[in-house]
Design goal:
- This protein has one domain.
- Helix 3 packs antiparallel against helix 4, helix 3 runs parallel beside helix 5 and helix 4 runs antiparallel to helix 5.
- It is globular.
- The protein is mostly helical and 178 residues long.
- It starts with a helix and ends in a 6-residue tail after the last helix.
- 83% of the residues lie in helices and 0% in strands.
Length: 178
């Protein structure tokens, strides 16, 4: 098993633990786990950049770049999740709103990365290696979509201005399925 695969497995384990903590109302633990997951993904992205520098051809560079984009997207997703956990953990309404605002900002900033990732996935073939890379990229996009919708719902529930226009734009581009 290569380091990227091990790192992805570690990330998924941490995300699962964070999700379980969130479901149990252990918001501080969830925040810490999502932060840990973000660091793992950031390190995986840095490793992908090293791989790009050693790519033999443009095809290999494309595959590695897609993995790097997906790792970066997952790191941003974990950042958004950590802000959601912090908002749920916060005892102060204004602090909770501020954390949701940060979550929304990061989710919005990730939109361009997700768009590039989706566009890059369209360049892949049906080879086995491409299918694996496509699944990984699609998972990152799906997670982003789910998280963006969640942040929007939480903001709406609290009377905050939510990024609903971003959701419509993502639907128009085929990133979020209607």
């Amino acid at each position: 098993m290569d380091l990227s695969t091990k790192g992805s497995a570690l990330f998924m384990k941490i995300i699962q633990e964070a999700g379980e903590a969130l479901e149990k109302g252990k918001y501080k633990e969830a925040f810490q786990k999502f932060t840990e997951a973000r660091i793992v993904q950031r390190n995986l992205s840095a490793g992908n950049i090293q791989e790009i520098l050693g790519a033999k051809n443009s095809r290999e560079c494309l595959l590695i770049s897609i993995r790097a984009f997906a790792h970066a997207c997952q790191a941003l997703n974990a950042t958004v999740e950590s802000f959601i956990a912090a908002a749920l953990f916060s005892q102060d309404l204004e602090d909770a709103r501020a954390f949701l605002g940060r979550a929304s900002g990061v989710a919005e900033a990730c939109f361009d990365l997700v768009s590039i990732l989706k566009w890059s996935l369209d360049k892949l073939t049906d080879s086995e290696e491409d299918r694996k890379t496509r699944r990984f990229g699609e998972e990152a996009i799906s997670n982003w979509s789910r998280i963006l919708i969640r942040v929007t719902e939480m903001m709406d529930e609290r009377g905050l201005t939510a990024p609903t226009g971003l959701i419509e734009m993502a639907k128009k581009e085929g990133i979020i399925k209607s």
